[in-house]
Amino acid sequence: MAQMYDSIIIGGGHNGLVCAAYLARAGRKVLVLERRHVLGGAAVTEELYPGFKYSVCSYVVSLLRPQIIRDLDLPRHGLEILPLECSFTPSLEGPGLVRWPESARTRREIAAYSKKDAEVYPEFGRDMMNMARWVKPIIDMAPPDPTSFHPSHLRSLMFLGNRVRGLGDEQLVRLAKMMTMSAVDFLDEWFESEILKAPMAVSGIIGTYLGVRSPGTAYVLLHHYMGEIDGSFRAWGFSKGGTGQISLSIANAARSLGVEIRTEAAVENVILRGDKAVGVALKDGTEFHAKTVVSGVDPHLTFLKLVGRQHLPGEFTDQIDRYRMRGSSGKVNLALDRLPNFTCRPGDGLHIRGDIAIAPSIDYLERAYDDAKYGQYSRRPYMNVVIPSLTDSSLAPPGKHVMSIFVQYAPYQLADGPETWPDKREAFGDTVVDTLAEYCPGLKESILHRQVLTPWDLEKDFGLTEGNIFHGELSLEQLFFLRPAPGWARYRTPIRHLWMCGSGAHPGGGIMGAPGALAAERMLKERAV
Amino acid sequence: MPYPSPFHERTQALCTSYRWKEWAGFYAVRSFDICHDREYNAFRQGAGVIDVTPLFKYDITGPDAAAFLSRVMVRNIKKLRVGRVVYLCWCDDDGKIIDDGTCARLDENYYRVTAAGPTYHWFMKHAGPYDVRIEDTSHQLGALAIQGPQSRNILRNLTDLDLDEMRFFAASDTSFAGIPGQLTRTGYTGDLGYELWVKNEDGVKLWDALMDAGKPYGIHPAGLDALDICRVEAGFIMQDVDYIGALDAVIESQKSTPYELGLGWTVKLKDREPFIGQVALEREHAEGSVWGFVGLEISWEAIEELFDGYGLPPHLPEQAWRDPIPVYHRGRQIGRATSGAWAPILKKNLALATIDSKYCQPGQQLEIEITVEWERKTVPATVVKTPFYDPERKKSYGPDV
Q1: Average model confidence (pLDDT) across chain B
Q2: Do the Cβ atoms of A350 and B41 come within 8 Å?
Q3: Which DSSP symbol is given to A487?
Q4: Any domain includes B185
Q5: Do A70 and B217 touch (CB under 8 A)?
């Protein structure tokens, strides 16, 4: 007789673990099944070279919901967040640009390029913060269905309507623009200097297969402005011990609440009885039964692989087919013998302690996208580089460092087919290192170990379909009551007793934990478990 | 004009923010940079170095040193073994606390007391019957505290002591890259940490040696603003902030007792020679205290909601604060919070408070005053146990550390 649980969570990523912890906190018996030998999914720390700990995939944190940190008392379970101190945009010509936490210092930096931009910059920040405040309740609520007349949906819609009204005319116009414009067009309304606009515009394209001049990317900019640490918006941080430590702290909290967690337990399929999910079967044939099955993996994997088209309504399957995954990024992790020395700003000063954006101009970014449009990885990619060992000395031996490089574009759909990625992996890695070395010569010679992750690897190793880091693009038509499909945005699925709790559900990707927490909340409210 | 500490030559060059304050007559750095975040994180994630020279230091020697100190202190110093340090306080005849500090036994008849305020006259006043020599070494000794998870690894490169075996609150003579001095495993951050004591003239040499050894470990000079947040997280009280020393109090109600300040655990009433304040403390111990000292966790949700009502994002104190704030129980004031801080590592809004002892049980719901847009409001606060933050590494030792 197979064991009986209230809930089985497929996938020990951070959202699955959050969902499990909340369900257990409400007294439910929960089992989490993780395919890999480590927990965390894409929020994982691994020591792939002795003494050096990589945040293998996701590498910074901002959107992790503060109420989850509080509810699960994550600091007690090992979560420590360190601030990302500044943003550095190196340049091959000038001194580059550093945006510091001190506003006067930032103003001085920007003024070297444009006095006007320097003074508008804080104004922009204030406006974005106001809009982010408006959007924030949205990411903390289960999306109402605008076509429903159910009182609870109407209440939520009224609430949102009132918030919009409270925004004021000027902000409302701005919000409408954000929803429709490209990141570049939106930023053009404010700023003139390329070196300021470029690193800001990339927030609009991270994880999407769009360019900075593609309409709709302005909204994603806002998504990145919602990041909140200690109540201050637009704050990003590192997790001590790497992003895997976030997952581990959630796992520790979950275990302390009684959650059972199994690693190296790959789910083969969801067991259905009629139109109901009743459990899961592992690859090795083991079966687990539960009142509810909750999937933390992406919608494609959940519905098309673990459930199967034959069990789903045709219209829904079409929608899931159309749901865009389109991975567009890769990751390179380096173990370094010494710190990089940027030509435009030499030395190991404070400027390299935050994130370093290789985004010298808008055209540079758009050209990077041009390559991707036709199925090539960017010859000169956008890169977001961090050296977390500078703030967290536990990640590397004394005097040595780890460098994390997020790379875009690396389209899953290569012109020669995604299966050719393994052959191109090292060449892609070389492109990344060569491009970065233009800004900091000597980088190549300081590399002790290199890990290159292509979208193909993200799919094969981390179960991210097409290597999409957000379980589906964060574009407006795939957000809120449309994520992952209209009518199914409240964590339920067409299969009874099967729920979703991953980044493919509202409010989407990033280390947020919100889908996991909201899914648990809905399940408990609807007495599904 | 304040005087420079023996490390001033180095700290003043690094203090690009020019944020100084006066501490016991010395120049002391508030924060080297405009923001103190990096310095705070050094304490909690790497290693922060802070100049603690302005502490008052007294070297007490002679055959009666232990007897004398046992007479003055609430702890029985006769039981203190060589190579150990204790945290303690001392009181007046009414059992009212004068100051708190540490006492290290450096040798058979050699003790070192640190204090927040000048204490020489108080010691001398009671030294009469004892064969003891009290030397104010405040201006002869420089002290650096190195605090944080990497502090032990850094010190390994400077001293021959077996640091893995050096326990929490241990003290030892040693040398740091050839500079003679003492090392104590003490500090004011509630973290793994040490304090290094050397002669003034060796100050700069010690600073340089420490910074060199610490560079690969991300060592960072830190100032008092960062320290203040750490000490609130650790639940440590501070003279002139959380209490007023009995010798400085203007009115009786400004004084407190060790029990009222949560220092009852330092008071040893039994199996010892009489000590100053003992009678009053025995009475209080038997009858109970009027006031109690507690940690408060201030509701974040309530603050967020309150600010949201004004169309504002929640505002957090950027620094530790030390202006007393009223604390209420169901609308009636029952005490005051004396200091507090947003704890970045715990993600909690914390305060230390002196309140009516009836309300001191952990879990007790209270309210604390908060001002939003110049309007007075209250938000819920919960009594919690201190220390708020207490990492295992603080006390860890042995071959596995």
Answers
A1: 96
A2: no
A3: T
A4: yes
A5: no
Average pLDDT over residues A237-245: 93
What is the C-alpha separation between B3 and B23, in angstroms, rounded?
10
Dist CA A77 CA A251 (whole Å): 9
Secondary structure element (H or E) that encloses residue B297, with its range: strand B291-298
User: How confident is the model at residue A523, as a pLDDT?
Assistant: 97
User: Between β-strands B47-51 and B110-115, what pairing exists: parallel, antiparallel or unpaired?
Assistant: unpaired
The range of the structural domain enclosing residue B281 comes to: 57-137+257-287
Is residue B142 located within the same domain as residue B153? yes
Chain B 11-70, CB below 8 Å of chain A: which residues? 34-35, 37-38, 41, 44-46
End-to-end CA, chain B = 45
Half-sphere exposure of B240 (CA within 13 A, CB side): 7
Per-residue pLDDT tens over the stretch A244-265: 999 999 999 999 999 999 999 9
In this structure, are residues A239 and A64 in contact, taking their beta carbons and an 8 Å threshold?
no
Q: Tell me what pLDDT residue B240 has.
A: 96
- The reply to whether B151 and B85 lie within a common domain is no
| pLDDT tens-digit map of A132-150 | 777 778 888 999 988 888 8
For residue A364, give the 3-state DSSP assignment: helix
Percent of chain B with pLDDT over 90: 94
| Residue in A82, A232, A249, A401 to test binding to B, most B beta-carbons within 10 Å | A82
Residue B115 region, left (φ>0) first, then alpha (ψ -120 to 50), else beta? beta
Report CA-CA distances (Å) from A172 to A167, A175, A271: 6, 5, 47
Mean pLDDT of B361-369: 98
Which of A235-249, A365-379, A486-500, B79-93 shows the lowest mean pLDDT across its residues? A235-249
- Helix (H/G/I), strand (E/B), else coil: A469: coil
In a domain, B241, yes or no: no
Q: Which two tokens stand for residue A257?
A: 């609440």
The 10 Å Cβ neighbour count of residue B244 is 18
Instruction: Identify the pLDDT of residue B276.
Output: 98
Q: Output the DSSP codes for B341-394.
A: EEETTTTEEEEEEEEEGGG-STT-EEEEEEEETTEEEEEEEEEE-S-S---GGG
pLDDT by residue (tens digit) across B34-52?
Answer: 889 999 999 999 999 999 9
ipTM of the complex, rounded to two decimals = 0.88
Interchain pair B153, A398: CB under 8 A: yes
Residue B242 near residue B338 (C-beta atoms within 8 A): yes
**Cα–Cα distance between A388 and A353 in angstroms, integer?**
7
Q: What is the 3-state secondary structure (H, E, C) of A273-284?
A: ECCEEEEEEECC
Instruction: Mark whether B142 and B182 lie in a shared domain.
Output: yes
- Bridge partners of B51, per DSSP, are B144
Averaged pLDDT for residues B108-134: 97
CA torsion angle A61 A64 A70 A71 (round to 10): -140
Is B48 found in the same domain as B189? yes
